[in-house]
Write a structure and sequence with these properties.
Blueprint: H1 30-43, H2 54-75, H3 86-99, H4 108-122, H5 124-127, H6 135-161, H7 163-166, H8 169-172, H9 179-186, H10 188-194, E1 195-197, E2 203-205, H11 218-234, H12 238-258, H13 261-280, H14 284-309, H15 311-322, H16 325-347, H17 358-364, H18 380-412, H19 417-436, H20 446-464, H21 466-469
Antiparallel strand pairs: 1-2
Helix pairs in contact: 1-2, 1-6, 2-4, 3-4, 3-18, 4-17, 6-11, 6-12, 6-19, 6-20, 9-10, 11-12, 11-13, 11-14, 12-14, 13-14, 13-19, 14-15, 16-18, 18-19, 19-20
Length: 479
């Protein structure tokens, strides 16, 4: 008897693979309040009642980072692959701890404080991955950074427009306690770098924004300009685009008003890099829109700065066209870098001891220690050599390169769009911070805190993306 076979019915239910589950955006927590604290704590110095607590207020931002590290390490329920910078940073900290025993460390307290400063700055790369669990969460943090830096930049613009209302009193007091007046009394050259002449011949203090040193708002302006333009291009909704564009405009304007040419060059460099990432990811319309907006923004911001700051603004930034960028850099920081790096490596190959430079010496050091005199350092690479010689220079540089390589990979190698769009922005912002190391010491300041926070947050967001986890990228050992 022959067998009869029947075809499968067309209505048969075929089992579908489960849809990728996106973790809901969490409530505001440690990451958000940490970002806010980095601007809010320095802003407290605007109030006279906090002037007597200046040291505690300055240290507070770094103490919060250390506290977050302890809380997350001892209470975390989530284990992630180790961040690629961790194998470089941990030996760097160990070597710095040994440097406390260096015979020319200024004081034990200053040495310990310097080590804790390094740990607090890099701490977010260890605790942020456990907290930031999605690209959307990281994007919220980036929006928060834009708003805070944008407000900071707006205050800087107002300080030039109406200094009597917005400028911190400790900068402009007419007696010898005012920072600018004190510098002018002691040395005209120093005062020249803190002030310039306005359109009516009045003295304009380079705006500090929500910080307390002239020109300090230039870095927030740089980041506000870049992030604002990026969000204006990528965001949906007219109000988001408008808010982002306004903050970008304020950021670019305050750079001109601070006379910090380095910040303008870095902002333009980051914009070029971001456009390149968009082109690589075949987002040509966004790239063209970014270029057009950037051109209009830089021109409009310069017009506002010229109106408020007068011809001094034009003269300051016209020098960028009169000389090549390399000549401008060499005349300001390049010569110092060229001299100090080989000299310090020759004189202090394993480090000069801790507490030899910077705020930790000022707050916790002994200026009368003749065996440990002060050494001047205002660029990151010489500072690393003073603190740990070629060993610290090698380890910290390796950590930065490993991190940028990771972020660059997440930005351009076919990741889900929700991930690569925010990864590209983090990559460009952090690349700008690394470039800032050639003219400043960002990795012993709050700018370094921002760098490692974004690095750790991107690490957590990447490994929390369901689409990314299924891409079969091998994971290093968990920590």
């Amino acid at each position: 008897m022959s067998r009869v076979s029947f075809p499968e019915p067309e209505w048969q239910i075929v089992e579908q693979p489960p849809a990728s589950r996106q973790e809901p955006l969490p409530r505001w927590g440690l990451a958000e309040w940490f970002v806010i604290s980095q601007t809010a704590l320095p802003a407290l110095l605007y109030l006279d009642v906090f002037q007597s607590l200046r040291v505690l207020t300055r240290v507070g931002a770094f103490v919060i980072s250390l506290t977050a590290l302890v809380l997350v390490l001892f209470h975390r329920k989530r284990r992630l692959p180790v961040h690629p910078s961790a194998p470089w940073l941990i030996p760097a900290v160990a070597y710095l701890a040994l440097m406390v025993l260096h015979p020319t460390t200024n004081t034990v307290l200053a040495g310990i404080a310097q080590v804790m400063l390094y740990i607090s700055v890099m701490a977010p790369v260890f605790w942020a991955p456990s907290i930031v669990r999605s690209p959307a969460h990281l994007q919220r943090l980036m929006w928060l950074l834009l708003i805070l830096n944008g407000v900071n930049s707006g205050v800087g613009v107002l300080q030039v427009y109406d200094p009597a209302t917005w400028m911190p009193r400790e900068l402009t007091l007419t007696d010898s306690s005012g920072v600018v007046q004190n510098v002018r009394t002691n040395t005209y050259t120093g005062s020249r770098y803190l002030t310039y002449r306005g359109p009516q011949g009045e003295t304009i203090v380079r705006p500090p924004g929500l910080f307390d040193s002239p020109g300090a708002v230039a870095a927030p302006g740089m980041f506000s300009g870049l992030i604002g333009l990026a969000f204006c291009v990528m965001s949906k909704g007219i109000w988001k685009k408008l808010v982002a564009l306004i903050f970008a405009f304020l950021g670019a304007s305050v750079i001109y008003l601070t006379h910090v040419r380095t910040s303008l060059i870095l902002m333009l460099g980051m914009l070029v890099l971001y456009v390149a990432v968009l082109v690589i990811n075949k987002r040509l319309f966004r790239a063209m829109l970014m270029v057009g907006l950037a051109g209009g923004l830089v021109t409009a911001a310069f017009s506002l700065a010229l109106l408020l700051g007068g011809p001094a603004v034009r003269e300051r930034f016209a020098s960028l066209l009169a000389q090549s960028p390399s000549d401008v850099y060499y005349s300001n920081r390049g010569a110092q870098l060229e001299y100090s790096v080989p000299t310090f490596l020759s004189d202090y190959p394993f480090g000069a001891g801790l507490g030899r430079w910077g705020m930790m010496r000022r707050y916790f050091g002994n200026p009368w220690n003749l065996s440990s005199p002060m050494i001047w350092a205002e660029i990151q690479f010489p500072a690393w050599i003073l603190d740990g010689g070629f060993i610290l220079l090698f380890l910290y540089s390796g950590a930065l390169l490993a991190n940028l390589k990771r972020e660059g990979t997440l930005s351009i190698r076919g990741q889900p769009e929700s991930l690569w769009t925010v990864a590209a922005l983090v990559f460009v912002v952090n690349a700008g911070t690394v470039a800032l190391s050639f003219s400043f010491t960002p990795f012993t300041s709050q700018i370094g805190l921002q760098y490692w926070l974004l690095s750790g947050a991107l690490h957590g967001a990447a490994y929390s993306s369901t689409e990314f986890e299924t891409s079969k990228i091998p994971e290093p050992g968990a920590f």
